[in-house]
Amino acid sequence: MRTQRYILGLLVVLLISAGMVVWTGRAFSARRLLTLYRTRGTEWELSAPPPQYRGLTAPWRIGVQAGHWQVEALPWELSRLRTSTGAHYRDFREVDVNLSVATKLVARLQEVGIEADLLPATVPPSYNADAFISIHADGANRPGVRGWKISTPWRPSPASKTLHGFIADSYGRHTGLPQDRYGVTYNMRGYYAFSPHRFQHAIAHTTPAVIIETGFVTVAADREVLFNQQGRIVEGIVEGVIRYLSRKNPLEWQKLLPQASPATTVTAREVPLYVLPDRDSPVKERLLQGTRVLPVDQEPGWTEVIVWRNYHRFGWIETKALQPPESSGN
Ligand SMILES: [Zn+2]
Hints:
The chain is of the alpha/beta class. It has helices at 2-24, 30-40, 94-111, 158-175, 186-189, 220-228, 230-247; strands spanning 61-66, 88-89, 92-93, 115-119, 131-138, 149-151, 209-216, 264-265, 270-274, 283-288, 292-299, 302-307, 310-318. The protein contains 7 helices and 13 strands.
């Protein structure tokens, strides 16, 4: 009787394990379990798996995601986003712009000899490419807002920052649209597809990535470009991608690694948190002395921080107002 129960229990465990393997699409390797274990404490604590290096001779490959496309098919781990169908204004839908632009962008990249994948909302697990570009369009009821913006993930790799710089430079020139300079949101920085430490269906942490809000579907002047002049959008992105690829040194794989810094503390009395690393940019709030912050990006003299465990509160502060990393007590 006892043995029978034992065998039955064992069978149930085996069945559940088999189910997990089928459901997740792969076995839980020791490394994966270790990574899960290590990231349990804080989502920012990246363990360091070896970079998924694409080699010296692999053809260039770009992933182009049509934002919100096929959200209904998102896997279980992202099921809360299945209703995230994107912005719209009357009959103008963001997802139509995203899919149309992404399709044309993929065709254009292939035309110039670059391998390109058209990706829906679901990203293949640990998607590995020379760049991942997520195409979106924005919507807002606030008067005066319009134009485009581009964002890297939190803690961007140097490669992601370079890609960002080239596309930001060419996009405005080709489209003629203004930049929504202060418009990048925490939803863009923490985009689910950028987060391999939280989701399996995300890019590899060594894939350089940007998300582009191509314009506002709620603004007539933006809609003119978004719906009727998509060729300009495509050229704006393609130029940036080609400039990035042509300057990329495949030997410098370290540039693919996200930049990590330990949490630290505000040491100055009351510090303005700016939208950009620029004293002329708007001040979001003032951080009090002793505020715990997590550095997520660096520029000369400036550090971008998230207020500890509150990633809705982020911005740039002058690095001299922070405790230097080597002396920061954890
Ligand atoms: Zn969107």
